[in-house]
Design brief:
This protein has 74 residues and is mainly α.
Length: 74
């Protein structure tokens, strides 16, 4: 987990994985308002986490590419 992920966000992600829901669609009438709100928040957290992981992987790949360019040939 990245350091930027707040403790409350981490707990909400854990709860969202462990909680049984009647339906997975976010606009379903089976969900209560609080469940919908939590699903939207979990979605935002997951998207932010995904962006962070991709950005970090991209920076590491650029670092490896630069290291290969500057490495002595021979």
């Amino acid at each position: 987990m990245p350091e930027q992920l707040a403790q409350s966000s981490h707990r909400l992600l854990q709860q969202s994985v462990a909680t049984l829901r009647p339906c997975r669609c976010p606009g379903c009438i089976c969900l209560t308002w609080s469940e919908r709100r939590n699903l939207r928040r979990v979605g935002r957290i997951v998207r932010a986490l995904k962006r962070h992981v991709r950005r970090q992987a991209r920076q590491e790949a650029l670092g490896r590419a630069k290291a290969r360019e500057t490495a002595p040939q021979g």
